[in-house]
Amino acid sequence: MVTIHRYINTDVGIARYNNKDGRYLCHYKGYQKSLHKVVFDKHYGKKARKGLEIHHRDGNKFNNHYSNLIAIDKETHDWLHSQIEKANYEVNIIENSFADAKASVPLKIR
Ligand SMILES: [Zn+2]
By Cβ atoms counted within 10 A, which residue in 10, 36, 45, 90 is the most buried? Predict the structure, then answer.
């Protein structure tokens, strides 16, 4: 469970949580921008993400540390998320089958 703070202090200033897209926004050079883009631009330069999308390596969009951000093309990004979704789905099936198996084991009392 991830705790969502309405405001967070970052090295690029105060960022505000945006309910609409579930991301943090901050003010940068007079504009309101997504925190992950500002952090990326500050560390890698805006050119590094030209025509690309930013992906959060660990899957946690609240982890906007520059080391967690990578710029990739839309096609690769979509493919990556489809693979992550597929893997999560399969993990859920496995976990649920373990839960079912546990539930069906008769309780032994020594
Ligand atoms: Zn992504």
Answer: 36
